[in-house]
Amino acid sequence: DYAFSYYASGVALWNSPAFWRNGVNVPAPGYTTHLLTDETLKFIDEHKDKPFFINLSYSVPHIPLEQASPAKYMDKFDTGNVEADKYFAALNAADEG
Fold this sequence. Notes:
By secondary structure, the chain is α+β, with helices and mostly antiparallel strands. It has helices at 32-46, 71-74, 82-96, and strands at residues 4-6, 19-21, 24-26. It has 3 helices and 3 strands. The protein is globular. Pfam families: Sulfatase.
């Protein structure tokens, strides 16, 4: 078995100290959504010759969205409501993985 996950529902969107790989706390530099995607793709590539099950659950778009998503997502939205823009950007980031 293999596990890569975050501890607690309040995981930071950037550089989270709450990530665990097989029970060991590990550094998690960067944007959490991208980190989860990259780890999943790496696992798929390394195990493509055997059956497996993956449960990938992104932490976004949970509120409050205290931290913004990367600029490439934030720049797409300008509703006049920064909280709505953060929410839409987080959804877009999850859609793209």
